[in-house]
Amino acid sequence: MMKKLSFITLLTFLPASWYFAQTTVFAYVKSADGSPIESAEVDLQNSPDDVTADKIGYFQFVDLKPGHYLITIAKQNFESKILEFDIVAHEKRKDLGVIVLNSNLTSEAGVVLVDDSASDADDGGSAMQPTVGLLSSGRDIFQSISAFELGAYWFRPRGVDNRYEDVLFNGVSMSKNDDGRLDFSNWGGLNDITRYPYENVDNITPSEYAFGNLGGVAYYNTQASSYRKQTSLSYSFTNRSYLHRAMATYSSGLSRKGWSFTVSGSRRWGNNAVIEGVYQDSYAYFAAIEKKFSDRHSLNLTGFGSPTYRASNSPNTQEVYDIMGKNYNSYWGWQDGEKRNSRIRKVFEPIFMLTDYLKIGKNSNLINTISYQIGNDARSRLDWFHAADPNPTYYRKLPSYGLLNSDEFRAQSQINWDFLYKTNHLNLKNMDGTDRGAVYSVVEDVNRDKTFNFASHFDTRLQDNWKLNINFNYQNLRSDNFRRIKDLLGGNFAYNLNAFNNDSQFDADNPNVQVKDGDRTQYSYELVRSQYSLNISSEIDFSKWNIAASIFTSYSEAQRDGHYRSGITRFKNNSKGKSAVYDALDAGIKAKVTYKINGKNFIVYNGAFFSLAPTLNEIYINPRVVDYVTPGVKNQIINSNDLSYILRGQVLKLRLSGYYTVISNSTEISRYYADATNELGTSFNTLVNEAITDVNKRFIGFEMGFDVKVTPTFNAVGAASVGEYTYTSNVNVSTFDDFNGFRGDEFWKGKANIKGYKVAGTPQKAFSFGLKYNSPKYWWVGASANYLMDQYLDFSALNKTPYLYTDPSTNDPYEGVTPELIQQLTAQKKFDDQFMLNANAGKSFLLGKYRMGVSISVNNILNNRNYITGGFEQGRLANFTDALEDSQRAIPHFGPKLWYDRGTTFFTNVYLRF
């Protein structure tokens, strides 16, 4: 009797949660075709105990008390789902059954093409070229619309170009050391491999694998076993930067002996898709081999590359477009009945990686990667020696100059290859019978990089709701830069002499050398850069709050090693040999704070403050000739903040964000020909290297993205971006040229007055509204209307300095100069607003174990050819007399160079997977 009483008494004093049955809740997450969805994220409202579905899509929550619950199930490239359920007392197990996530079909079919052909042009004075950012289709509706709808028209979210974005493969950064930008050519065509990033964070959100920058982080894990076991075949037809694409991918899955393989290959080819004289032939390959030694340890070897051969298209003045049309390209001409382009980019920079995956204990992982990348990036162009400029659009050949009329210009509007060969043939011999050098040739500017990387990532769970990440990176770059002869066009050899500076020797230690095909000429130097960086981040999750923070520090060293001693006396001691080491120390902090109002509503704050060391192009103002460091070059200081409201409802998904970013102390380099006047009034033309330093910019605005499920199959989606991207300071200007060396503020009479000018290269305001229908029978159709506003022309800084209106003979303003006239001459051009209409459709089929899909997307259905995707002001007119005279002409000789949108473009795709 006493034992029974004691047991009853014990039950009385124990918590009620002990003797009420606690419940295990479980379910399976699958796609519409019944395939399990691995690694789906399952978020339990007001709880830090979130879980992830395993390889068969299974997840469970244990020890849940009676009550009402809400979970959100999400997976990239699938539509998220919210599920509510109740647990009653004494319910031990609750089966939620199979939770089906519908594929975001338009994101799978809507292939985003990174068309960077325009960025190959280096004609004129602009550090800006049209670029696109990290074009990915994440769960965030604003980012998805920015990529697939607005991104087709060079829209950049928050005004950030890819200088401020990070792409990592197994922890190794793909950003180039020379300009900090991403070169998508290194993995172009590998869509099956890069379709789903392992981690994709937007803007300044902290990442687990890197500190990141302003434009977000995309992290790719190339572990062979991480790819779904299948074979995928696809073919695409398009009229964008090529015509055809064929792609095949095979993943073996993990064998019983622990081996797995993933291989992929593709080819993109075709010519004259829209722009005349543009052609491309590019291959791509990928292979990953993994050996899994145990559940805790595996080793993965990866190799990928994308040998690319692509012709470029020219920017042109409005006068040229009015005569020749929007498809005109001045870079090509007929040779033996075929179109030959003078501007060819040939790049092949394969990378090889060895990655070790190690699980330590129950909660920790260590991932180490070593990589080596080697290859060439060569860009060709015409060169001439004591001869007329062969460019068909040279200003003296344009009708506005008066020597030719429009019909005569049309008749000689392409490069005359026959004339170049004939001219060289007539100059093969001197009067005494000795050989003469070529008058015209094709040269290539080559970067030959060798890059070694070591990347280490460690993560551990300190507690169930507290995670710590540590990332260490080391990189060593040796970049060999030179110009070489590609084609002598029938000539005997080329002179290694500077025709623009009294035939001075480019290499004084080897005078009068005769340069043949494949030989180096004009410049040759090596840049060496090493960098060490450490990043520590942590995330802690509470029932109502989530807090993440990230810090980093980085140290880098850069050095130039010149191979040629300049024949210009003032440069002879600073041109050949090793320069002093330029070092830089960086540091920064990021933070993210999320307040969970409930399972559907969130408030998110992100903040970042960090420095950014100058790139190699920013450190050395003219590395082709000398080792001079750019005057006033500094580390950039970046301060960025954003605040968002996020709603993840079953019917409505919404994000509203406001952001404020300041970039200080940045440096911008431009290279172009300028017409200037020296102190004695003597006019001359010269190639100028222009640097503006102490550049401050402000990016402010708000974003909205929404997705409304009008019916279970019909959605309305939209995005709005309203920004203002402005230069907030007048800047220091320095120039370097062969005639005069450095010229700074003293020569240019002060700072460039650019305060209030707008950042170019992207619409500052953009709006998109779309409708899409996803049929239960696996077909879809969608359309979007897009409106782009506030696109500006990039400017040249020289004619914004007081030098423009200051008479060098008197040091006073020219006669007739007024503030109104200066404003007229220096005003920044704003382009017209534009409307674009897009559409896409597709269907997928299930044929037993085979899955087949067809899709088509069309951009700019209305064939709007008035949209200017980018442009820059020519820097040739840096003095008042010439600038005023040119501005008063009906058609200026030196109008801005522009790129126009290509009009209606399409992309069709068919795939088979099994």
TrEMBL record:
Q: Which residues form a coiled coil?
A: none
Q: Which InterPro entries match?
A: Beta-barrel_TonB_sf, CarboxyPept-like_regulatory
Compartments where located: Cell outer membrane
Q: Which UniProt keywords apply?
A: Cell outer membrane, Membrane, Receptor, Signal
Keyword Signal: yes or no? Answer: yes
Superkingdom of this protein's organism: Bacteria
**Has keyword Signal?**
yes
Signal peptide region: 1-21
An example of a Pfam family matching this protein is CarboxypepD_reg
Its recorded name reads TonB-dependent receptor
Q: Which organism is it from?
A: Chryseobacterium kimseyorum
